[in-house]
TrEMBL record:
The lineage of its organism: Eukaryota, Metazoa, Spiralia, Lophotrochozoa, Mollusca. Residues 70-174 form the Hint domain. GO terms for biological process: cell fate specification; cell-cell signaling; intein-mediated protein splicing; protein autoprocessing; regulation of gene expression; smoothened signaling pathway; system development. It comes from the Eukaryota. Gene3D superfamilies: Hedgehog/Intein (Hint) domain. GO terms for cellular component: extracellular space. CDD domains: Hint. PANTHER family: HEDGEHOG, PROTEIN HEDGEHOG. Residues 1-19 form the signal peptide. Keywords: Developmental protein, Signal. GO terms for molecular function: calcium ion binding; patched binding. This is Hint domain-containing protein.
Length: 283
């Protein structure tokens, strides 16, 4: 039976939705937009984000997205201390021992040596990876998480969160008898959350909201772990930036990594990340 033209038009309107996210960056109201079509999300238009004019009522101008530099975890994700207590990221302190994973995939408790970045009051747009069993992992797109295209724990590899696809597997400690178990990603979306945190552990990994993640972002996990060796041994090198802000020294090391590493070993925010942001669901 043929579908009437007017009904097709209605269905098109339903399947093509503007998913706007509003938040404040400093004293500026920002609108973040993705276009959802048929359960998938197209690239946004030419402008990455819009800022509301302070002198107008409903006028918005294309503007630079300073929040794209917030490469990290939000403050409301959870971590497990050696005592068994579960705390929020915004409660985490230097010297805490948190659940992490060794290079061989074994669960251990690892000391938080310092924070590579810490802005408790900043708001940012985060990627939410939602699994089939309802778990949510929130982090920035360029942050490294451990994933696989199969449900084999032995094939768990570090991957940029923005390159995780629906149907891929993350690795969780929740309800897992063997330590770490695969769980399939069902939905990928974005949300605004408060706080910008990057804790650095001895292992270079951390279990966040029961999911295995790296302490590093935007460049290859193993090389980042090597670059951060001096900081893990001598965290005092960061001075006051251990508790607030982002050290110019860390910024220099990261920029150096982007300069010398091939494209397949880094995450380019100008080509993927927020410019190709997407909200997807396994329908």
């Amino acid at each position: 039976m043929d579908i009437p033209v007017y009904l097709l038009a209605v269905l098109l309107c339903i399947t093509q939705v503007q998913a706007d996210v509003f938040f404040h960056h400093g004293d500026t109201e920002v609108r973040y937009v993705t276009k959802v079509k048929n359960g998938q999300v197209d690239k946004r238009d030419e402008c990455s984000c819009y800022c509301k004019r302070k002198w107008g009522t409903d006028a918005w101008d294309c503007c630079a997205c300073g929040w794209a530099d917030n490469i990290c975890f939000p403050g409301d994700v959870s971590l497990t201390l050696e005592s068994g207590e579960v705390i929020a990221m915004d409660e985490l302190k230097q010297g805490h021992r948190v659940l992490a994973v060794t290079e061989g995939g074994q669960l251990v408790f690892s000391e938080v040596k310092t924070f590579l970045k810490r802005y408790p009051d900043n708001m940012a747009v985060y990627l939410d990876l939602i699994t089939e069993d309802g778990q949510t992992m929130s982090l920035s797109e360029s942050h490294v998480i451990f994933s696989s295209t199969t449900n084999n724990t032995k094939e768990m590899i570090p991957n940029f969160a923005g390159r995780v696809n629906i149907g891929d597997y993350l690795f969780t400690t929740d309800n897992c008898q063997s330590g770490i178990c695969p769980v399939k990603v069902k939905t990928i979306t974005h949300n605004v959350r408060k706080g910008v945190y990057v804790p650095l552990t001895d292992e270079g990994t951390v279990v966040v909201s029961n999911m295995v993640a790296s302490c590093y972002s935007s460049i290859n996990h193993h090389l980042a772990h090597l670059f951060m060796t001096p900081i893990r041994r001598y965290p005092w090198l960061l001075g006051d930036y251990q508790q607030q802000g982002y050290s110019p020294f860390i910024s220099f090391l990261k920029n150096l990594g982007h300069w010398i590493l091939p494209n397949n070993m880094q995450f380019d925010l100008s080509k993927e990340g927020f410019v190709a942001a997407r909200t997807r669901t396994d329908l």
